[in-house]
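Record Delta(3,5)-Delta(2,4)-dienoyl-CoA isomerase, mitochondrial, 286 aa.
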Amino acid sequence: MTSPMTSAAVQELQSLRLLQERPRVLHLQLHRPGKRNALDLRCWRELVQVFRDIAQDPECRAVLISGAGAAFTAGIDLAELGSLLAALPAQDAARRAWALRRHILEFQQSFSAMERCPKPVIAAVHGPCIGAGVDLISACDIRFCSQDAYFQVKEVDMGLAADVGTLQRLPKIVGSQSLVNELAFTARIMRAPEALSCGLVSRVLPDKAALLEVALEVAEAIAARSPVAVQGTKVNLLYSRDRPVSEGLQHVATWNMAMLQTEDIPKSVQAALDKKGPEDVPFAKL
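=>
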């Protein structure tokens, strides 16, 4: 069945493209290939709206995000960033600061909306993933890349500290504060083998075609499982990431006092007894 997200409203997207290539899986492309998918102001706004809509789409159970053309993303569109800074109110420093803070918080929401979306999000990275691209993939649940991919926390080279998620999320992904500090202080490039060894990505594929095929297969495997189970798992993983183990255990106990009553459990058990896979179970929409 076609997802509501592939309706006419989605066709109005300009910096993004949304496709449905597998059942219950949406494929979101950064779609400014002529600009190496640099994130313009329209793209930041579209990301928020798309992921808010996906969160409410009962047909969608998993999302793949990739880049059109030869790059995943070159990061924020510097020309548009310059225009934004130039348009700050010509008032005293305090008022300019408040206006700038509002813009930063709006940018942060673009990736936080992706993280908060209960549907798992897989990033498929090929070529350069620079600056805001690292912020973006840090908000994804699963990250794969091609052999030609490279990653760069570029902000210090532009004279600023990264401010839309990398400094907060990346240390919890790679598990080495020293490595994160090195990357953030020096803006050095991290290539695919190192990204795999440090845990930034969990698979490296030979090329973009193989990358997208494997990422879509994983998304399809996720979408075949109970949406109650998968989305509950994501919610609890995120909740527990930022809290002590004891609080996470309390939260999942409260969560499952309701969710263990789902019809998906007896359906899944019966399928296992019948030697069937989850893809054979007609789970209801969520």
